[in-house]
């Protein structure tokens, strides 16, 4: 079992048991099958980004709650090449949890790689999304409108609306997403 699968498995089981929820109830809340939830909890399935978002939304927790390891040092140097990504179904959207959610800080941060020709439809979720394009040309569809962003462009928007990230170029797009959660 890969390390990231162990972390996700542990965190999902911990949340479910802490709340006294059965797998059936979690399936009902999230729209993810009981069989899939059991496989995730036992580390036998590596869930996609979409599946983790469904579980996070159903349980009303942040996405990175499932990626969080035990509390680490106050000063922490991170290199994306040392992180294990969560990959969407089509293998073109890679999400790296750089700074997982912490309740006192009220935010989480991701580095994202979106390969040429791929797109990712994000479900509505909690928080306010802050996006910074590091490299490439990203098309963002938000509330039916398409906007194009290039190196060093930024946008902030409420994440409780469906949005889609698209790479219509021939080059890799790298961007950062900071999700801020108000009280």
Q: What is the spatial order of strands in the main beta sheet?
A: 1-2-3-10-5-8
* Rg, alpha carbons: 16 Å
Average the pLDDT over all residues and give the rounded result: 90
CATH architecture of the largest domain: Sandwich
Alpha-carbon distance between the two ends = 36 Å
The description of the largest β-sheet is: 6 strands, antiparallel
Explain what this protein looks like in three dimensions.
With 183 residues, the protein is an alpha+beta fold. It has 2 domains: 3-66, Orthogonal Bundle (434 Repressor (Amino-terminal Domain)), CATH 1.10.260; 80-180, Jelly Rolls, CATH 2.60.120.10. The chain has 4 helices and 10 strands; from the N terminus they run H-H-H-H-E-E-E-E-E-E-E-E-E-E. The protein has helices spanning 3-18, 23-30, 34-41, 49-59; strands at 86-87, 93-102, 107-114, 119-122, 128-135, 138-142, 145-149, 154-158, 163-166, 173-180. The protein has a 6-stranded antiparallel sheet with strand order 1-2-3-10-5-8, with no helix packed on it. Strand 2 and strand 3 (107-114) form a beta hairpin. The longest helix is centred in the first third of the chain and has 16 residues, at 3-18. It is globular and about 45 Å long.
Secondary-structure map with pairings?
Blueprint: H1 3-18, H2 23-30, H3 34-41, H4 49-59, E1 86-87, E2 93-102, E3 107-114, E4 119-122, E5 128-135, E6 138-142, E7 145-149, E8 154-158, E9 163-166, E10 173-180
Antiparallel strand pairs: 1-2, 2-3, 3-10, 4-9, 5-8, 5-10, 6-7, 6-9
